[in-house]
Amino acid sequence: MAEAEAVAQTVACQHLQESVEAILSLVEQESSLRNQDVAAVSTSLRKAVSPTFEVAFVGAFSAGKSMLINALLGRELLYSAEGHATGIECYIAYAPADRERVVLTFASAAQIHEEAQVLLERLGVSSAIDLSQEETITTIIKACEKIVEKEGGESKSDQAKRAKALKLLLEGWWANRDRIHPTANATYSMEQFNFSNLKDAAAYARRGSNSAVLKRVEYYCYHPLLEDGNVLVDLPGIDAPVKKDAALTYAKIANEDTSAVVAVLKPAAAGDMTQEETELLEVMRDNSGIRDRVFFVFNRIDETWYNVQLRQRLESLISSQFADSQRLYKTSGLLGFYGSQLRDTSEGDRFGLDTLFATSLKGSDIAEDTPQFVYEFNRYCSSSGKLPANRFRISVNNYESQNENYVRILGEYGQPLIDQLIHDSGIESFRNGITRYLTEEKRPQLFSSLANDLQPICVALRRLYSDRYRELDSQPTELEGIKSHRLDRLNTDLKRLAEDFATHLKREVNDIVTNQCSRFEDDFRNLQVRMLGRMSELLQGFSVKQAYQRATLAHPRNSTAPLLAILVEAFYYLANELEEVLIAETERVIRQLFSVLLDRIRHQNYYRELCRLVGSDAGLETRLRAIEQSVQLALRSEASTECDRYVRESPSFYQEGTTIHQFQQVLQQTSVGYDFAPMVKAEPAIRQLLELDFSPKVKRSVTSTFRQAVSQTLKSQLLPVAVEYEEVILQQYTVARSHLEKTIEKEAQEQLLNLATEQAALREQITTYNEAVGAIDTCLQSMGCDRYQLPIVEVAN
Ligand SMILES: Nc1nc2c(ncn2[C@@H]2O[C@H](COP(=O)(O)OP(=O)(O)OP(=O)(O)O)[C@@H](O)[C@H]2O)c(=O)[nH]1
Ligand SMILES: [Mg+2]
Asked: What is the position in ligand 1's atom list of the atom closest to the CA of 83?
């Protein structure tokens, strides 16, 4: 990117963060916008303004992640080998050519101690260990070796893996103990280790005893790909035999700091995706920091050249599961990396055998070892089928050693062969793809994501502000306008609340009549209980003697009285006593009913509004009190009538059956003499006779006839009030108008003030919003995202 362009972008985007944050805080103020995805905007903002952009290389162990990074950078930086090679996080960031460096960060002694203790416990030793004692350490290391041996190898069982891990940890601790801080994570530069270059540091940090006590390594190296904050992160395999190492990688994929992922997949070598690889893709999908910034690299593609089945399985996997993946590459990290290194070699150094591969040849004195690359190179030349026969007629001779074949072939075909090899390795197309992404597409894409996430939020905010603005704008703005508007509305207001009152009262009455009002039901149930209770009390307390006395008193010429006279006295007595109770109870029930009704009315909006508009309730309460009195009067007479009817025996009294039979029994008992004694003796029987007649009469009256009379009275007295009062309220117009005229001035002034405050607040919000959107748009345009234009709110000045 041109320097000037970069400067222009920095200037255009200097207010991006605060502008986006201003919009988010505007959204927060609006409860109706709670459902907007603010979190997504925060994440995209963080990515867009972040000075670094971390690209994590993840995949199974030995998939070729470290080698791929080496190939990408075109230098042997990271340690790459068969087996579990990377054991810690390695960050590769930019440095100018003359300031390349490495920073190694160690775990603290406390962390190492804790980890050792956990491993020991898992191995079945629970006692505390002292890490400063050499003997203790040697003893444990020996014990670990024994366990590994007993299990048949370090990867044979979980127990063996733990023993191996503990051994490496303790060896690493002992070898580096001078550098390790008791509680802090100490950092060292490569000079402090006397490393002459980055590669030495990488070899030191490879998986083993040192990596067991290291936390991370940061390489700062010069490479254009790393400019603009790009950081490559090499990680242990997701299926690394050491669980802790694999966990590190999963944590990195789930971390929001990770901005893109290069998924280095192994199916080219294994035939299919492993369970861990599938799981990896799922975890990645859940990280909103990564989104679609994923490169799929099927590495070790060279293995499919020699195996038709592998090739077919890979093709079918890609077409079935990765058909719509845009960033998909097939590479051979090994051939690509060393192929490009060969460009600096010649026949003079036996095409790298004496330089590049010198260290891997030292293995044996008898015969020179074959480096892995040489072996793969020869295989590529002889049986990959990749080399066009018209240009390359290569024979790999079995009478020559692998290395001799290698030197001869390169001597014969030289650069064109190397170019073909690099081309087939797919490394250049991967490098071009990722370079194009990181240098050209990344920034616009990060800003597009931000704009995309902001778009719905801005649209919603704009709509909200425009609506609110229009609403406030349509309100009257001068005192006279508000006043006349208010007075115009008065009649409609009165009408509305008169209707509300009528509807409410009708509903209340209907609830009572249809037994829906629980308060009234409870009260009426009390009345029933008291009536029935009083009846049994009266029957219990009934005295034949007193009735007899009353009967003889009424007939001064006679000294005796018939049973019938006693019964007559009893009927009058019971009916009159019950009347008193019914009157008192009814009075209580009605009083209670009206007090509840009034209370409910007072709590209605129409009532409050009526009081506000008219200055009083227009006599509503007084009117209802008067109605209560007339209901009381009407029901008092209903109660008297009801109880007066108790004086008459019920028709069933004389019917064949229980009552008449009881009557005959009593008559027989009392007719044995003419004095008072047989009557007293028959007292229980007389009581029973009375109960047989009264009990059904009173029950029917309180549950049915009297209850119905109450409902009917309430309905006939209250419903006309609903109609009558609708009219009364409408008649209040003149009173309300003069009342309103007194208060309207103040009300209108307050309303004007409120309107002005609301308008000012809204204008301020709109200005903040428009300024923020303007700043964001300027930044987006400088980034080349012209497609996105966030909406501004247009208001008249
Ligand atoms: N045939 C072949 N071998 C490869 C390829 N890429 C890497 N290798 C070899 O595979 C082995 C593992 O490579 P690394 O780069 O260490 O793999 P890694 O994914 O970093 O492994 P860990 O760090 O252990 O997770 C090394 O011996 C490489 O030389 C490839 O494309 N083809
Ligand atoms: Mg590695």
From this structure: 24
Q: Percent of the chain scored above 90 by pLDDT?
A: 40
Q: Which of 67, 252, 299 to mutate to test the pocket of ligand 1 (most atoms within 8 A of CB)?
A: 67
Q: What is the pLDDT of residue 797?
A: 64
Is the Cβ–Cβ distance between 297 and 263 less than 8 Å? yes
Confidence of residue 92 (pLDDT cuts 50, 70, 90): very high
Q: Which atom of ligand 1 is nearest to the CA of 68?
A: 15
Cβ-contact 317, 276 below 8 angstroms: no
Residue 64 Cβ < 6 Å to ligand 1: yes
Q: Give the integer Cα–Cα distance in Å for 124 and 158.
A: 13
Separation of 163 CA from ligand 1 center, angstroms? 25
- In sign, the C-alpha dihedral spanning 514, 519, 520, 524 is positive
**Pairing state between β 258-265 and 53-59:** parallel
Interacting residues of 235 by C-beta distance below 8 A, sequence separation 6+:
56, 57, 58, 65, 86, 89, 90, 248, 249, 252
> How confident is the model over 596-623, as pLDDT tens digits?
999 999 999 999 999 988 888 989 999 9
What band does 528 get if pLDDT is binned at 50, 70 and 90?
very high
Backbone angles phi, psi at 104, to 5 degrees: -105, 130
Dist. CA 257–CA 253, nearest whole Å: 9
Tally of CA atoms within 13 A in the half-sphere of 448 that contains its CB? 12
| Residue having the nearest C-alpha atom to atom 28 of ligand 1 | 81
**Ligand in closest contact with the CA of 297:** 1
> Which helix (DSSP H) or strand (DSSP E) does residue 54 occupy?
strand 53-59
Neighbours of 599 (CB within 10 A): 9
Is it the case that residue 682 has pLDDT exceeding 90?
no
Could you tell me the two tokens for 75? 């230098």
The structure tokens 């719905």 sit at 456
- What is the rounded (10 degree) CA torsion for 300, 302, 305, 308? -10
Average pLDDT over residues 547-553: 87
Structure tokens that stand for 315 in this block: 């093709």
Q: Is the CB of 36 under 6 A from ligand 1?
A: no
The answer to whether the CB of 236 is under 6 A from ligand 1 is: yes
176 Cβ contact list (under 8 Å, min separation 6): 106, 210, 213
Nearest to 205 by CA among 72, 93, 90, 359: 90
What value, to the nearest 5°, has the Cα angle with vertex 14 and ends 12 and 18?
125
How does DSSP classify residue 389?
A: T
Q: Could you tell me if the CB of 71 is within 6 A of ligand 1?
A: no
What's the pLDDT score for residue 414?
85
Ligand 1 center to 282 CA (angstroms):
24
